[in-house]
Amino acid sequence: MNIDMIRAAAQRLKGHARRTPLLTSPFLDEIAGRQVLVKPECLQHTGSFKFRGGWSAVSALDEATRKAGVIAFSSGNHAQGVALAAAKHGAPAVIVMPADAPKLKIDNTRALGAEVVLYDRAGGESREAVGDAISQERGLTLIRPYDEPQVIAGQGTTGLEIAQQAAELGVNDGDVLVCCGGGGLTSGIALALEADAPAMRVRPVEPEGFDDVTRSLASGEIQSNATQSGSLCDAIITPAPGESTFPLMSRLCGTGLVVSEDEALHAMALAFKRLKIVVEPGGAVALAAALFHGDKIEGDAVVAVCTGGNVDAEVFANTITKFDKH
Amino acid sequence: MNIDMIRAAAQRLKGHARRTPLLTSPFLDEIAGRQVLVKPECLQHTGSFKFRGGWSAVSALDEATRKAGVIAFSSGNHAQGVALAAAKHGAPAVIVMPADAPKLKIDNTRALGAEVVLYDRAGGESREAVGDAISQERGLTLIRPYDEPQVIAGQGTTGLEIAQQAAELGVNDGDVLVCCGGGGLTSGIALALEADAPAMRVRPVEPEGFDDVTRSLASGEIQSNATQSGSLCDAIITPAPGESTFPLMSRLCGTGLVVSEDEALHAMALAFKRLKIVVEPGGAVALAAALFHGDKIEGDAVVAVCTGGNVDAEVFANTITKFDKH
After folding, report:
1. Start and end of every Tryptophan synthase beta chain-like PALP domain (chains A, B) (predicted)?
2. Are residues A111 and A7 in the same domain?
């Protein structure tokens, strides 16, 4: 895993992934006490950065392998990212999803051209068993959500853009806050910045109670979360940092930051009001850290990556109404 | 008023106004029955395209005039656009607003650095009288919201970007739908496309009951609206097309399109769900026409400009919840 793979992925993504802008607001600067630059990956195709990794992985396959098809396990953003990337390559995609996933996510994944295979999570059926059987039968290639070099390379293209866009605004150093699940995006951006903006430092951000990466970085060993459910920040809840991403984060990242769910929701409401973008709770933890944990951040400017915007209307409506008076 | 003024404005805006991306969604394409390209000016500084015209006008003044200061009449997006543009130039700005304008808009305009002068709309006080007195006393330059060549030139830079960004996606012809109030943005984009994408045609879009531009274009003479209040699409409600903008629209635009308020709200909800952007009701009428009036549109692709995103949390929350099941 190295910077050349990220640059090669950027070439393959060109004209296909969206180059999201870098947004600012004087109102957010005032709250944070420093300049806040927001990278809105919620505006990426399928509403999250996951399309980058999906496209990178699918486009890196040789043609015969790609034609045979790909498979992914996901009930969320990775599913949609891989589904659209595969569809645009004319490659079959099977997405294995829990039968009790929200109907909208199942419908969307199908509408993006993927074949959805449901498994009975509650009944103890293993998604790996279901997926392995289909993969072997059809010769599908598994695309993992983060422990996969070409996926990390695709996510890392976000970092190449941040380095260039921040420099255009005169920002060359400071902390880059990234909403962190398994660490694919975080480690990819860290690698990109090591090459293109070495005075910038990536800091993973997580919700309280699901701070496996922060604890892993602090202890130097992979730590797990006690539970994987019960958070509105579901998009970035993973069991533990990845085997490939953890060494990269250990080498390149600063200490992790942890925000409360209420702070994440407040950041969502401010992104609505001041930036006019739709961010999901898990995608707002980095902005929450930038706004409400400034004492733990270094530099006159801070970059926050808003990683996704796939949030239910009801959650979004309740959140922006609740924080309307702030 | 000509294309050279727009190109000169683009030079002055470079590095200051945001180059908004061009967004797409396969889900919107399916509803529209053709490819839909969305230009999200809600992501512009201050949440609407008005910053372009404000910056263009302020930056076009000679230094002594600019130092003396500028003045604008507005309770909405133009106020904020001019306020921020002036502040970034270090120029004083006076914004004359009705005393009964929403407190948030008054507070925002002040926070952007402008001096807000309130007048008593209900008591019959004339904003022109209030404004004229201040202007003469202090030597301020009035920046009109649309009947002002340098403002039209600034708004027209949106058209230069559309021509280039659509061409990158392989789209060189078809209708370009623009939410239309006084016609500054509409005529500016029309001039830009005449030069850079002559096979594209601008179509103004208005809400039912406030279709002064559509009727004016049809009759060949300036027509007024019967009323100027009572619409959620307040951002684009003006008494009549401008004296400078109407001749440009007459020469360059196709027939107007009219959508219902419910269609505008539905488009807002779909922009939330599929594009992850926040659009105000008046800023969503063009997208509504693209999605729900396809029989009156020509071409395999359509461009819709979402002009602003300054919407109250309550209106937005109610709208996305109402249309959640669609």
Report:
1. 15-308
2. no
Positions of A marked active-site? 50
Contact B53, B81 (CB under 8 A): yes
Amino acid identity at A190? A
User: Residues A101, A164: one domain?
Assistant: no
Q: Do B89 and B215 belong together in one domain?
A: no
Residue ending a domain, among A81, A114, A142, is A142
Is there a single domain that holds both residue A191 and residue A307?
A: yes
Quick: pLDDT tens for B2-58: 999 999 999 999 999 999 999 999 999 999 999 999 999 999 999 999 999 999 999
Nearest C-alpha in A relative to B42: A276
The separation between CA B17 and the C-alpha centre of its own chain, rounded to angstroms, equals 14
- Is A301 at the interface with chain B, CB within 8 A? no
Say how many domains are in chain B.
2
Q: What is the dihedral of CA A162, A165, A166, A167, to 10 degrees?
A: 120
**pLDDT tens readout for residues B223-271:** 999 887 888 888 888 889 999 999 999 999 999 999 999 999 999 999 9
Boundary-marking domain end, from A80, A108, A142: A142
Residues of A in contact with B37 (CB under 8 A): none
List Cα–Cα distances, A108 to A47, A53, A307, A310, B26, in angstroms: 12, 19, 19, 11, 10
Q: Are residues B65 and B35 in the same domain?
A: no
Would you tell me which residues 232-271 of chain B have a C-beta closer than 8 angstroms to some C-beta of chain A? 269
Instruction: State whether A163 and A210 are in the same domain.
Output: yes
Structural domain including A80 reads 51-142
Mark whether B181 and B278 lie in a shared domain: yes
Write out the DSSP string of B184-216. HHHHHHHHHHHHH-TTEEEEEEEETT--HHHHH
Whose tokens are 């196709």? That residue is B254
Chain B CB within 8 Å of residue A90 CB = no
pLDDT per residue over A292-302, tens digit each? 999 999 999 99
Residue A168: how many CB atoms within 10 A of its CB? 9
pLDDT digits (tens, 9 = 90+) for B220-235: 999 999 887 888 888 8
Nearest to A27 among B18, B27, B111 (CB): B111
Residues of chain B with Cβ-Cβ distance to A42 below 8 Å are: 276
Say whether both A159 and A59 belong to one domain. no
Interchain pair B313, A272: CB under 8 A: yes
CATH number at residue B231: 3.40.50.1100
